[in-house]
Amino acid sequence: MHKLTAAQATRQVNRLSGLPRFAELGKPGIAEMVRVLCDRASDEDHAERTVTRWIDTSKWLPSCAELVEALDATPEKALSLKPNWECEHCQGSAYERIWLLVTYVRHPSGHQKECEEKEITAEVAQQLMNEVDGHFQKVCSAVKYCRCKFGQEIKRLRLIKMAENEDKAHRGSKREK
Ligand SMILES: [Zn+2]
After folding, report:
1. Ligand 1 center from residue 80 Cα (angstroms)
2. What confidence score (pLDDT) does residue 177 get?
3. Ligand 1 centroid to 10 CA: how many Å?
4. How far, in Å, from the CA of 152 to the mean position of ligand 1?
5. Does residue 37 contact residue 9 with C-beta atoms inside 8 Å?
6. Do residues 8 and 68 both lie within one domain?
7. Per-residue model confidence as pLDDT tens digits over 30-55
8. How far apart are CA 174 and CA 177, in angstroms?
9. In the chain, what is the greatest distance between 2 CA atoms, to the nearest angstrom?
10. What is the C-alpha to C-alpha distance for residues 56 and 53, in angstroms, rounded to an integer?
11. Who surrounds ion ligand 1 at CB < 5 A?
12. N or C end of the chain: smaller count of CB under 10 Å?
């Protein structure tokens, strides 16, 4: 069930109209964003805070995927713990980018390959990017919860929510029996 109406979602999407290329979205593009907010925002306040944060921190229009990420990164209830915009790792987003060196190891049995991942620093990633052959080793970037207080708080809330959903699903399946 949707917790915010299409009209409320449309109002929030229209707040992005100051960003470049909004006019190019057209009705279908706007409808997709409205759908994302209706499907994923927990209520109008959650949608509003997500959009406000996007406008305050981004120079471009979000894609639907970016909007989903932004909703996920915005706590559903206003937190007492405020993001630390000065955090050198996440700039207040709660997520930090990490770099991985992925090494593929040929499986003893033959063709199958296994991979090993090792976290490396951005400097090492830059350096290695031109050196690895891309076939047996690759430099990849990934995202994880920031080590700062805010990032860890978001992680904690996410885990609680996941546990709640699992619990609901569990109770649901019990009822079916
Ligand atoms: Zn941080």
Report:
1. 16
2. 43
3. 31
4. 9
5. yes
6. yes
7. 999 999 999 999 999 999 999 999 99
8. 5
9. 59
10. 5
11. 87, 89-90, 146, 148, 151
12. N
